[in-house]
UniProtKB/TrEMBL annotation, chains A, B:
Superkingdom of the organism of origin: Bacteria
A Pfam family of this chain: AIRS_C
Residues annotated as domain PurM-like N-terminal: 40-151
SUPFAM superfamilies to which the protein is assigned, alphabetical: PurM C-terminal domain-like, PurM N-terminal domain-like
PANTHER family for the chain: CARBAMOYL DEHYDRATASE HYPE (PTHR30303:SF0), HYDROGENASE ISOENZYMES FORMATION PROTEIN HYPE (PTHR30303)
Family from the record: Belongs to the HypE family.
Name the UniProt record assigns to this protein: Hydrogenase expression/formation protein HypE
Gene name of the encoded protein: hypE
Originating species: Pontibacter ruber
InterPro entries: HypE, PurM-like_C_dom, PurM-like_C_sf, PurM-like_N, PurM-like_N_sf
All copies of domain PurM-like C-terminal, residue ranges: 163-315
Length: 338, 338
């Protein structure tokens, strides 16, 4: 059994002695760098040019899942959002909302994961905040990470740049993150465990920008709502059609089986380690080659084309030869997936 | 009675149709600007030089209080943290964690307040995120705001610059925010209502930096834990002594009375619209004059001096002539004050 001192109390969020102990004893120790060292309300650094700025709050439940925990999710998610802006991720902020009674041991494990994920992504956590809410007014731990990056000089990522004929490329197999979370929630067992794909993708993105520059028209990571939601948003925003082919969409066999078991469409399931790129048709095969060079699995695929037909809609050629509209999801398939 | 459609459901956080309706129908409409217009995962802008970056999550309860609500608190708090770095606030991110069942009407009111506070502070909300958690797993609404600012060319705000003889200046009366929240929680009634001091202070700060530059050694806003906590942190960090005089500390008579009624020491109560400046003794009287010019009330005051004695401690000369240590608070005086 934990002793009360191993769990968070409201006083840890008070700004007083216990807040200081929490910060000095774990947060600053595990995340140590010259910026946090200043113990100030914010971080100051030199940075110039076109910058990208993004934010995400993470409320994933459960906090720990096969392949990761809320800590690497919070780092990778925000790093990836910066990458989707065509930016080299630089600095992160980190803000915790802890529920009274949450385990300090779990918190420390998550902090260590944050440190590892930040190191792997080459970013620094430079400023932060910690709040504690009463038992029953939160759910163990919510994390917000915001991030700043420097936009790649060749990047021109903008939905306005999407044009008819652009190829729709996906960088890896879909639905792993969502199904990893669901398998824990539902207590499903498979031959081998389904793992979340939570990983940072900015190195792949920066390589594409180096090589293909403005021929990379748009980037988006299909997190909540999955590939179907991202493509629907783009179809609406551009008032162009998105035509995709079911058989081109990479799905791990076990993930596919789990989706079928739960009656979920993998196109709507969340991802945390892949991205969608809309690229000039002329470079699409070479983009694919570059993506394939990066991993041994070579699962990136061209899944479709931007078309003039069915403006505002996503239409899929099915494996059995038919065509169907892939609608924007209306309800909630998988709450608190990220 | 509200109909169910006037309250948030989990689907509003799903990334699907209802998420889109929420964003298009209220968030993007009320906060409209060229950056949000892009509907991307992050915002891209040009900014160069020494930048400041800060984050804060706001979990104040209740959401609405005399003088403000969580919306202006979230804007002003982060704007002020940037100001404390000596920076001109520029861009904010905004991330909501909504509890299922929270009122859309209240949310809209808070969004309007955010817009007004951002306009007043001269900052733009350029990127954001919305999550919804199940009933009983949150508390109506938590907000994270992160911010980016451009550091004033003359600013050199660093605890390392604090030196013996520096004067400790406070920009206005203490404890108003905390007591405004407490008066609502406790249902206290006074002759006139105690109002939170939630306001942005960066204009005052930038004026000081224009005029006094590097003679402004350090800035900090005494939010959670109040003036006593900030001074204790500085005493520890610098290993210098902070000597303050009780009779110099400005407290509104009604706030003082409310503190006495609840047995609270105003030095430990949260503030949201004042700051502490540690300045070179040679300019302290002129700093005070500049602060007094800014408001008709002229309540800024020199409350003490940085001394070689009692290193690491805050010692107060009391009104009745004695001296006492003002300790770092250990426990939780006022949870969820910001």
């Amino acid at each position: 059994m934990d002793t009360p001192s191993e769990r968070f109390t409201l006083a840890h969020g008070s700004g007083g002695e216990l807040s200081n102990q929490l910060l000095e004893g774990s947060v600053f120790k595990l995340l140590h760098n010259e910026f946090l060292q200043k113990r100030h309300d914010g971080a100051v650094f030199e940075l110039s040019g076109r910058l990208a700025f993004t934010t995400d709050s993470y409320v994933v439940s459960p906090l720990f899942f096969p392949g990761g925990n809320i800590g690497d999710l919070a780092v990778n998610g925000t790093v990836n959002d910066l990458a989707m802006c065509g930016a080299i991720p630089k600095y992160l902020s980190l803000s915790f909302i802890l529920e009274e009674g949450f385990s300090k041991e779990e918190f420390t494990t998550i902090l260590s994961t944050i440190r590892k994920a930040a190191d792997a992504a080459g970013v620094l956590v430079v400023t932060g905040d910690t709040k504690v809410v009463e038992r029953g007014k939160g759910d163990k731990l919510f994390i917000n990470t915001s991030g700043i990056g420097k936009v790649h000089p060749k990047a021109a990522i903008d939905a306005d740049n999407i044009k008819i004929g652009d190829k729709i490329i996906i960088s890896g197999p879909v639905a792993s993150h969502g199904m990893a979370i669901m398998s824990v929630r539902q207590g499903l067992e498979f031959e081998s465990q389904i793992e979340s794909d939570t990983v940072c993708v900015h190195k792949q993105v920066l390589e594409l920008l180096d090589e293909f520059g403005t021929d990379i028209h748009f980037l988006r990571d299909p997190t909540r709502g999955g590939v179907a939601t991202v493509l629907n948003e783009l179809a609406r925003q551009t008032q162009l059609g998105m035509a995709i082919a079911e058989q081109q969409i990479p799905v791990d066999a076990q993930v596919q089986a789990a989706c079928e078991m739960l009656g979920l469409d993998p196109l709507y399931v969340a991802n945390e380690g892949i991205f969608i790129a809309l690229v000039d048709a002329g470079v699409s095969e070479n983009v694919l080659k570059t993506l394939h060079k990066a991993t041994s699995k070579q699962l990136a695929a061209i899944i479709g084309t931007v078309v003039a037909e069915h403006p505002g809609q996503v239409v899929m050629q099915t494996e059995i030869g038919g065509r169907r509209v892939v609608p924007m999801p209306s309800g909630e398939q998988l709450p608190r997936i990220c």
